[in-house]
Amino acid sequence: PDGLESIGEGLFNGCSSLEYIYVPNTITSIGANAFSGCSSLTEIEFQDAGTTAETSKALVFEDVATGSGSSVSGCDSLKEITFPNRDVVIGKQAFFRSSIEKVTFGKGNLTLSEQSFAESANLKTVVFDDETMIAVIPTKAFAYAGIEEIVLPETLKEIQTSAFGRTKIKELVIPKSVETIGEMKGNNGAF
Predict the structure, then answer these.
(1) Whether the Cβ atoms of residue 17 and residue 54 lie closer than 8 Å to each other
(2) What's the distance, Cα to Cα, between the start and end of the chain in Å?
(3) How far apart are CA 162 and CA 191, in angstroms?
(4) What is the pLDDT of residues 45-98, one digit of tens each?
(5) Rounded distance, CA 175 to CA 98, Å?
């Protein structure tokens, strides 16, 4: 509906027959576990930012409490997610242990939190648009994910400790823009 601003915590939790959801650009907040248990969900379509103040605000995926799943836990049919061309904030563990295989970030400012995509074993590919503006890959953001392929954007300034710990990355080119890389602590270092 027009003017809708948030999708509340657990709103669609357990809706096992839900296959598709459209998120208009008026939505600024998606609560923890909003789509958990939507086992038939194959697509979440996001509308890009609009030109008015109401439709150009950031989209925030709220933090998920440790041990309570993620925004999409149990969404085993959801294999790919493309974030909209607008500012996006992904909270702590928002996509923790998801079944997603490919993530694409659109144009705009991107803020990731600790463990945003951690332990997502099926996540193989992460794509940043040429105009994705991200300064920090935080601690354990992609730790234990199945990532094999990632090209880091030129806006990146910092890669924190264990950001890609225990992933399957075979080759990584660190942009010249990176000023800080987290401590290396055995097998749990930044890479």
Answers:
(1) no
(2) 43
(3) 6
(4) 999 998 888 788 999 999 887 666 689 999 999 999 999 999 999 999 999 999
(5) 28
Neighbours of 137 (CB within 10 A): 25
Angstrom distance (rounded) from CA 102 to CA 54: 29
Which tokens sit at 95?
């996509």
- Is residue 182 within 8 A of residue 143, CB to CB? The reply is no
Of the pLDDT bands very low, low, confident and very high (cuts 50, 70, 90), residue 141 is: very high
187 within 8 A of 166, measured Cβ to Cβ: yes
What distance in Å separates the CA atoms of residue 82 and residue 12, rounded to the nearest whole number? 20
To the nearest whole number, what is the mean pLDDT of the chain?
A: 92
* DSSP, res 187: G
Q: Are 62 and 33 in contact (CB under 8 A)?
A: no
